[in-house]
Structure to design on (85 residues):
């Protein structure tokens, strides 16, 4: 004999909520286990990060120098005095 449809829906909803609760608990436990104190990069990653940082700094200085080198008498636009290739 089959249960009443309303009873079946209620049971299914409770099971679904229980599964959701279990999944959330498992994610919480997994995230707590993976949290570790960060440590500084070592080896090739540190070298790459340093190279990238220096390159970015160099590009910012280069752009700032171009902005400073614009002709202030030219009111329409801020074109660079240096010819671009």
């Amino acid at each position: 004999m089959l249960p009443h449809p309303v009873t079946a829906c209620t049971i299914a909803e409770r099971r679904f909520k229980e599964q959701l609760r279990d999944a959330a608990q498992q994610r919480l436990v997994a995230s707590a286990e993976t949290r570790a104190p960060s440590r500084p990069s070592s080896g090739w990653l540190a070298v790459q990060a340093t190279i990238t940082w220096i390159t970015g700094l160099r590009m910012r200085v280069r752009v700032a120098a171009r902005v400073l080198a614009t002709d202030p008498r030219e009111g329409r636009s801020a074109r660079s005095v240096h010819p671009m290739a």
